Amino acid sequence: MASTGGVLVVFVIGHLVGNLQLFLGPETLNRYGHFLQSNKELLWLARIGLLTCVALHIVAAVRLSAENKAARPMGYEGDPAPIAANYASRTMLMSGLIVAAFILYHLLHYTVQVTGINFSGQDFGGFHDAKDRHDVYRMMIVGFQQPIVSLAYLVAMALLCLHLSHGVQAMVQSLGIRTACCPGLARRAANWGALVIFLGYVSMPLAVLSGFGRGYVEAANAAALVDAKGRE
User: Fold this and answer.
1) I need a labelling partner for 213 at 20 to 30 A (CA). Which of 43, 57, 79, 85 fits?
2) Which residue has the higher pLDDT, 189 or 32?
3) What's the CATH code of the domain at 29?
4) What would the pLDDT profile of 135-169 be if each residue is shown by its tens digit?
5) How many helices and strands in the chain, by DSSP H and E?
6) Is residue 154 part of a domain?
7) Model-level pTM?
8) H or E element: which one contains 41?
9) Does some domain include residue 49?
10) 78 assigned to some structural domain
């Protein structure tokens, strides 16, 4: 569980760095997206590896939860409130499963580009920039302009980072990385790291809802309309 969790943490950080290129403009983000799409063998290898890690992580979590319950089939008498465990640690399985469900939606939304679930009525697969590359910038702006999508994204990122705040600490301990010289370092690093990741991810939908990228989308829509009329 710790090993697959470590792989997924690295992906979460790398995915954030890639997505934050939204703020560098359409040329940078579309070039990045085109680079990924141009290396489909590596892209699909990475996707399969990540999905395998997610599946193994969930299976390990369910098994560990079952083993914990089997080890203590009867609850404590009196006050059931845990003394040492915090909220994040007590809700790891629940938050993890919800995040897994969101990952499935996220893949259908931006990767598979299923039109029926993007709430915009537009075909993301038909978005192309002036260089005939997939217009990832426009896709993200249009996607996050839908309040229900951005809200789901914000909630999912909050749960993900709650999950990370405890999961990274547990991972460090399970892998034997924690040292006696700095007993609180893993906890502080996990908490602050989760906060930074949360702020990075939510900055994008919040910026779009505040109007970021609206002019680009309006210009792209106008150009697409002119092109459609020209073809008629």
Assistant:
1) 43
2) 32
3) 1.20.1300
4) 999 999 999 999 999 999 999 999 999 999 888 88
5) 9, 0
6) yes
7) 0.85
8) helix 40-71
9) yes
10) no
